[in-house]
Amino acid sequence: MMNKLRSCLKFTFVIVVAGGILGCQPDEKAPSYTGYIETDFVYVSAPQSGWIQALTVKEGDEIIKGQALFQLDNELQLDEVAQSNAKLEQAQSQLVDLTTGARQKELDALYTQQREAEAALTLAEEEQTRVIALFKQGLVPASQRDKAIADFKMANARRQTIGANIDVAKLAARPAQQAAANANRRAAQAALDQANWHLQQRNITSRVSGLVDDLIHYQGEYVTAGSPVLALITPQATKIRFFVPQAQLINFKVGDRITIEADNQTQPIDAKISFIADHVEFTPPVIYTAESRQKLIFMLEARPEKPVNLPAGLPVEVRRK
Length: 321
Known about the structure:
Elements: H1 2-23, E1 32-39, E2 42-45, E3 50-55, E4 62-63, E5 68-72, H2 75-100, H3 104-136, H4 142-170, H5 175-200, E6 203-205, E7 210-215, E8 222-223, E9 228-233, E10 238-245, E11 257-262, E12 269-276, E13 297-304, E14 315-320
Antiparallel strand pairs: 1-10, 1-14, 2-9, 3-5, 3-8, 4-7, 5-6, 7-9, 10-13, 11-12, 11-14, 12-13
Helix pairs in contact: 2-5, 3-4
């Protein structure tokens, strides 16, 4: 009886000890999911058609925002700028001419004519006085008197006409003419600005910082407007694609936080789910482990919370936080 009791106690102790050992086991990690690094390429295209005169970067170069990438031929654009400059100068000269009145030499000529007209008027007035006096004495006929009066009137009218011409010459052009000339000047300025912009578009600089991944065209080639010349990878464009079995998809939603583990990364990378596919796939496009060979899986995408510089195609493990 005692031996039987001891055996029972011994078995119970083993169970308790085993239970204690199991209870002290650390919690296992959250399930991991197979994935890989993907990136959205930034394609830098030619804004205009032309020949590539210079290509200042090569594959693998790290570039910064504002750095020169390539240059197109610009002879035509330089000619357009020169032509637009000449038209603007012409329009500005016309506007100045209409707003300042006659030139000084033209006014000097009118003043000379005015002095001649005043002298002629003085002589005509004296002749009229003399002839009228002679007519009253009966020494000249009435026709001579009438001619002297007419000459005086003509001389007086000429002086008044020249005076009016001087007043008009001092005036600027009519407001409508000035407005038209000003509008022509603004149009010429706009044409020059456009020509300068077209010239600037022949020198292409990067709008982002990143890495040159691929050169699509090279120096000496002709490209049409909108044709990609090179492709960039930016840290902000990096994303993670991973695959989740159908049964576990209910545990994920857009905005959930996850961690990414990759080779040569000492610390996990925090990311947020940005996309969940609405259809199943039968297998991931690239199988990294035997465990990933499952059917009815869904593709998810996540974006790192901070920019990372990881190569496209790098295998990663994804875990929920």
